[in-house]
Amino acid sequence: MSDHRTTPGVTRENRISDEGLQRLDRQLARGGKITLPVLAQWVRRYGDSARDIIRQYGYNIDDLDQI
Predict the structure, then answer these.
(1) What angle do CA 46, 37, 11 make, to 5 degrees?
(2) Distance between CA 60 and CA 36 in Å, rounded?
């Protein structure tokens, strides 16, 4: 039997990174339509950094606070 143990999942610190924000920026730059509930999820996860990126692409950030 092996003593090798793995930890489940990915830590929050590793999941919330600049790489995630870059992915959001690329998706918006391609012009793909992202629904407001999905954008609101990005804002909940990444905060003001996501708001700034989303605002650059012309989305109304005020709408996201109501979702």
Answers:
(1) 35
(2) 9
DSSP label of 3: -
For tokens 């959001």, the residue is 24
Give the start-to-end residue ranges of the domains of the chain: 18-65
pLDDT band at residue 32, thresholds of 50, 70 and 90? confident
Per-residue CA distances from 55 to 3, 8, 24 (Å): 49, 35, 12
Q: Residue 19 has what pLDDT?
A: 87
Q: pTM, whole model, 2 decimals?
A: 0.71
